[in-house]
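Structure ticket #2291
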Amino acid sequence: MPNEKLEKFLEWGRLFFQGATDFGRKSRSMLEKEANDEMDNFILVCFADTLGIPLPISYYTLELLPYLAQDLEMWEKRMLNRKSIWGEKWGDYDLDA
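Resolution: structure written out below.
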């Protein structure tokens, strides 16, 4: 009986320290998703005229094109793979757990 309590205590301790020190798994994916969202918003603001939204500073944003060309390709892939923006936002809050 005391052996079972000790094993249970050690298991809880192991899970506690694993959860407290596992920074790489969930936090990294959350940071990557947030960075992608910020980049998507930035690209949308810079190149809104390509979607038909008038942008008075398009001349200046075109100067950013050589620096953002590589990111535009990834942005296009993310936009094409996006199924539902509501589903993505619902998943951000991790309510299904």
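Closing remark: The mean pLDDT is 80.
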